[in-house]
Amino acid sequence: MIFLTVGTQEPFDRLVQAVDEWAGAHDVPVFGQLGRLEAGSYKPRNFPYELFISADEFQERLESCSLLVAHAGMGSIISALTMAKPLLMMARRAALGEHRNEHQLATAARFAGRGGLHVAAEAPDVGPMIDRLLAEARQPSGAISPYAQPELIAALKDFIRGA
Amino acid sequence: MTRVLAISSTGGHWVQLNRLMPAFEGCEVHWACTSADHEARLNAAAKRLGQPVASYTAITDANRWTKAKLVKQMLEVVALLLKLRPDVIVTTGASVGYFAIRVGRLTGARTCWIDSIANGDELSLSGEKAGPHADLFLTQWPEVAKPGGPLYRGAVL
């Protein structure tokens, strides 16, 4: 199962369409969470989707997927790292009206290459990368700790103690 | 026992806030988020650490584009702070965290802003505004840190 999630705000047609085209040519189940679509937004023809799902359903779908495909949002990245799921992400571009600023480009660049995280620069890269990531069937690199770095925990503890 | 309020908006901010849980060891920890969805999983996570959740409050969701909701959100944060009177407030953002920092200062809390790890090039807008009012102002990227704050003391992952 591939779980596609693009956050809860603007639509992300480029990514949704790329996954839809891939899904039309493959026999792998896909589920999409597409956020707030607009009148002219692209609607998938080859996989079921919802605009919004509850946090519980998100967690269930995350746990049961073999590949997470998402916009380059921190929620998606942290979810993927925490659950040790491979993540294929593509950055929303403000220049294309997909976000309010270009911070997802920076986020994608910073996290690309980190265990299990993969970046599609453009929509045509998405399909081939899904093929590759599924084919690799790579063993996840092991779930990361569910907690922040010890240094940050210690700094916060000191602050709470009033040190 | 030190009373801590951990507060953030839902989504990535909340995921990051949850990763700070071990820092609240030995405290009375109250949680607030702009979604009611997380309570069961928060309780389970807290139980694993042996840290009971003192309370969980769902606050109206808002952002800078929804002004009316923003006002409602602020009033809910004020009410929550007057009710809880936390000693310490910790937030990872965004607008709900900004309000908690600004109002918390008036109610005598010591406050900590941890800017989201999503902001690796520059501070978030809410961090830019809230940070200077926080007693501890942190970024999760060394490149963003400055001597007068935000400081870098590690990251949530």
UniProtKB/TrEMBL annotation, chain B:
A molecular-function term among this protein's GO annotations: transferase activity
Keywords from the UniProt entry: Transferase
GO biological process: dolichol-linked oligosaccharide biosynthetic process
Protein name, as recorded: UDP-N-acetylglucosamine--LPS N-acetylglucosamine transferase
